[in-house]
Amino acid sequence: MTKKPEDNYLVIVNPNAGRRRGVRDWDKISALLRQEGISFDAAFTNSPRHAIDLAVSYIEKGYKKLIVVGGDGTMNEVVNGIFRQKRYPTSEISLGMITVGTGNDWGRMFGIPHDYAGAIATIKMNNGFVQDAGVVRYFNGNSEEKRYFVNIAGIGFDALVVSKTNKLKEAGRGGPFSYLKSIITSLLKYRHTKTTIKIDSTEISDKIFNISIGICKYNGGGMMQLPEAVPDDGLFDITVINKIKKHDVVLNLKRLYNGTINKHPMVETYRGKSVYIESKPLIHLETDGESLGHSPFSFDIIPRSIRVLIGKSA
């Protein structure tokens, strides 16, 4: 008997993720899924943002169990598809991940193993956790757009670094150190920006180097820009790096990895449900490693809205 869509997993595969590991390793991944008795159908992306459309289409057909084979960017696209579909409440759809990317920052938060067998064993455990999500409204020219995210949004310097990193990936020169390389090269031309930030009822106005807003702790391949983040507390964690000397950035890179960034005197941290940001000149945005548009930005938290399959308690 043919299984109904709700009985099968839908596996959304990004063949280009991890310098084409998505397509190179698919036979191995699919064999491991079958070996573990996981019944699935597979759909492959063929362009940027295609995973959004695939998620919407298949959920509308009745699929409620999704697996991402890709990186954090593919995960972000599938999350956006979950929020855009109209058939089920978002928290009724379960989402697992088999990472073939280089960052694995979302998975690092939840103990998702980097090896395929470990990731599939995690999915089979069906250990569900309902995390918060964020939605940001931003601009591309005069057009306002919105994007959902489940990890971290970066504004200012971080957005420039991600843009450079993504270009390295597109040129086939991505890798575990591409983000760090982009940090160093971006420092050569980045300028601080006069920025106003409204966090609930608190307003800050200063020259800003970088802003991180998110639900989870990690980005950039293991950096902890939000070291105190709790993924289901109904609040964004916000890290603001004020005007800082360029050599001071380099000297303090270790703070991003050991979770002490919030101890630096030029760093301020906040929590809130909504954030509004405007700047002069305009500054840019990335969410979950995807380069987007420019300011002004408006962020809102969506509490406990995405059910994810995790390897340990968050």
Characterize the overall form.
globular
Structural class: alpha+beta
Tell me the CATH architecture of the largest domain.
Sandwich
What distance lies between the first and last C-alpha atoms, to the nearest angstrom?
38 Å
Q: What is the gyration radius calculated from CA atoms? A: 19 Å
Strand content: 35-45%
CATH level-3 fold name of the largest domain: Tumour Suppressor Smad4
Low-confidence region ranges: none
- Mean pLDDT, to the nearest integer, reads 92
Strand order of the largest sheet: 7-9-8-14-16-15
Number of domains: 2
Number of strands: 16
Q: Quaternary status of these chains?
A: single chain
Order of helices and strands: EHHEHEHEHHEEEHHEEEEEHHEEEE
Fraction of helical residues: 25-40%
Identify the CATH class of the largest domain.
Answer: Mainly Beta
- Report the biggest beta sheet as strand number plus sense, adding barrel if it closes: 6 strands, antiparallel, barrel
Total of helices: 10
